[in-house]
Every structure is written in structure tokens, then in C-alpha cells.
Amino acid sequence: MPSPSIAPGWTETEAAAAQSAPVVMELRGIGKSFVHSGTAASPVLAGVNIVLREGEIVGLLGRSGSGKSTLLRIAAGLAAPSEGQVLYQGQTLNGPTEGLAVVFQTFALYPWLTVLQNVELGLDALSLSAAEARRRALGAIDLIGLDGFQSAFPRELSGGMRQRVGFARALVSDPLLLLMDEPFSALDVLTAETLRTDFLDLWVGRQLPTRSVLLVTHNIEEAVLMCDRILLLSGKPAHVAAEIAIPLPRPRDRLDAACNAITAQIYTTLMARLTAETSTPNHGADTIKPLPNVSVSRLTGFTEVLTASPYGGCAELGTIAASRGLQIKEVFSIAAALHLLEFAELTGGAIKLTAAGRVFADSSVEERKRLFREHLQCFVPFAAHIHQVLKQREDHQAPRERFELELEDHLQPSEAQQTLRTLIGWGRYAELFDYRDDIKSFLLT
């Protein structure tokens, strides 16, 4: 595992002290593979090594689909690794156990139970008396800011309050290690900020029973504001590609120069690694790769931003993402799509518009359509394939299912569906083909 990066402000002594804290959990050489419909095993994780120590919040950061949630489920004992070992307090973890609790992205509440009853479910495995379970549940409800709502049902609560119930249910068992799977991502921005701040206040004030936290997130700013260390998950299969220390005192200000510097460092590091994974597009006619979920309007808007001052057609992906307030998955998906269409080049974490990309950004609507159509047919073979099939058919139509099955020969079902949605949007814009959802069919334009 890579040693922590010592960011400005963290001395060697402080780094050594952090490394000497008692170990709560250790993941050694974790690998995980899945088998789909009898096909060969598809590796998701490989050689993941993580040490979680007392007194720290560790962030696990990576783009969607990188294996973050799978790794968290393995750490929670909810899934078994295909390779490697999980040690919890020095003992092999073979399933859910006392001292581990999970806060999920979705609220996962039972709608027919009250707030109090939902929280009491977190104590089921402890065999407590009804009176003790009630006392501890009421204490957790009060701690998390829901006092007075114990008799309410989930349908009566806002999204933020429902997630507070999820936190209370996780904390009621006094867990040593709290595992959080994007717990704020289903909330609106202001609600997420409030809940995040309240949680950190409890953590800093030592009001929580928890001694260590593993936070899965794709939000770089959230990770910088909350975590002591950030682990960047990258690659296929995914592994810990880098580790960055966050030596800043809490509370942290997202507008502070030190926060911005670390955020930019993380963007640059992660973007460089993601770029390396897709640095050379493969345009072979028999090659089918998943397409990013990016609309043409996002592509055109991004090229216009790149051509304007101060970029002049070229920029670091981390810099442009941070300055425009974009999430990492957004900016990389846009850049990857432009790279695939050869409107831009990706090298070393930077994007540079090609000559065609500059023309595309500066052209009229009709000229953009013409250029996009040419590049779509030339550099996305499956789009050209759909167009050719429609031309050859007498009625110039073909069922969606036909292309779904072809894509699923090469891609996972979710990737095939997303790729088809992208192809529909791009094909319509280019006037290469159309799609009618009422009859689930493609038509020649």
C-alpha cells in the first residue's frame, strides 16, 4: 500500500503519531470477482490493502462503478472477498459482527415502523431487554437530533430526517467502526451540508461511540471537508492507486486556500490515472466499448468553455473541474467522450481540443451537426452499424432488442443499456437515426 502523502502542514512527527494509533480493521490483498450468466469471472477489485486506525475518518474515493461500495460491503462482512482477508480487531472477519455498523446511501427504513422502532432494529443482535433497548434507542434519537419524532413514521419525515434515522440506527449499537456508503448523496445540497456538519460536530466533540469511520464517496469536496486520509480507488480491476493525507484542523472551510490546494491535488491525481486508463481510443470495427453518459449539449458546452479564456483550448482536467464546480465523474465522462470522438486529446491529466474540436466549438448549429455526424460514424463503430442495418432493411426499422443483445455479448447489461441510451441521443442529434420508445424501435432518419 502506498505510504500517505504528507501534505503541507503535516509534520513527520504528526504523520508518525497517526500511524501509531491502534488498528481497528485491516484489509489484506482483497480481491473480488463476479460471474454473470455463466461467463468468465469479471474482477472488480484486486490487491486492495487498507488499514483503518482509531481516531480517523478515512475516505474511499473513486468514480461510479469503481468498486467502492463492493469494498465497503466486504469490510462490513456483508460480502465475502474472492481473495484476501479482512481482520477486525486482529481476528478474521467472516460475516457481520458486533462493533460494525453501516449507514447506506438509501434510507432503508421500514415504512410500517416508527422512528423508535426502526432505530431499535439496530439492537436486535445484542439480545438486550426491551427496557434497555428502548433507553439506548431514545438516546441515539436524541443524539442525532430527532428528539420528539420517535413516534413518527418515515412517510412523515423529510429526506434529511429519514437519513438521521439511518444514522441513529447505526450508532445505537455503539459501533467501534462506522462504515458509510455515500450517506449524503441522496439529499439536496443544503440538507446534506447540515447533516454532514452535525455529524462532524459530534465526531470532533467526541460524542460518538465510534472510534473509526470509513466513508465511501465520489464527492471530492466532501472527502476533503470530512476525512483525515483519502484513498483513491482506480483501475480495472480497482486497487488503491494513491493515498492523500488531509492535515487541516476542523471545522474546514471549502473556500480556504489550503482546502482548495488539496482538492486540486486530488483532482489532478485522480484525473491523471483515469486518463491513463483510456489514453488511446480503440476504433477497431469489431471493438465495442461502453459509452459515457454524456449528452451532446454537455459536449458542446464543454468545448465552448475550453476555447474561451483562460484555457485557449487546453486545460488540466482537475483545474477545470474544480473551477467549474463539476463532480469528477462528470468532467471525466465529458472528456472521455470528446476523446473518443476525436474532438480532443487526453494526456497526463490534461485535455486539449483537436483541430476538429476547435472547429466544432466555433461552428454554427448545422455545421456542428454535420461534423458530429461524420465523427460519430467514423469513431463509434456501433453507431455506424445501427445506421447500416437500418439502411439495409426494407422498412428501415429495427427493434431495440436486436442491438441490446449485440451489446450484451460484449458489455455488462447495465453498461449495454447506458451505451444504447447514449447512442440514441448522439444518433438523434447527428440525424443519423431516430428512436421511437412507443414501439421500441430504431428508424432511419
Task: Lay out the secondary structure.
Elements (H helix, E strand, L loop, with lengths): L11 H9 L2 E12 L7 E12 L2 E6 L6 H8 L7 E6 L2 E2 L7 E4 L11 H6 L9 H14 L15 H13 L5 E5 L7 H16 L7 E6 L2 H7 L2 E6 L4 E7 L11 H21 L18 H12 L6 E3 H8 L3 H13 L3 E4 L2 E4 L1 H8 L2 H15 L1 H12 L4 E3 H9 L4 H18 L2 E4 L4 E4 L1
Parallel strand pairs: 3-8, 3-9, 6-7, 7-8
Antiparallel strand pairs: 1-2, 1-4, 4-5, 9-10, 11-13, 12-13, 14-16, 15-16
Architecture of the largest domain, CATH level 2? 3-Layer(aba) Sandwich
Radius of gyration: 25 Å
What is the global morphology?
Answer: globular
Separation, N- and C-terminal Cα atoms: 53 Å
- Tell me the domain tally: 2
The largest β sheet comes out as: 6 strands, mixed
- Say how many strands there are: 16
What is the CATH C level class of the largest domain, in words? Alpha Beta
Q: Tell me the strand percentage band.
A: 15-25%
What percent of residues adopt helix (DSSP H or I)? 40-55%
SS content category: alpha/beta
By oligomeric state, this entry counts as single chain
User: Average pLDDT value?
Assistant: 85
- In the predicted model, the low-confidence regions spanning at least 5 consecutive residues are 1-10, 280-286
Biggest sheet: strands side by side, in what order?
6-7-8-3-9-10
CATH-defined fold name of the largest domain: Rossmann fold
CATH superfamily grouping of the largest domain: P-loop containing nucleotide triphosphate hydrolases
Count of helical regions: 16
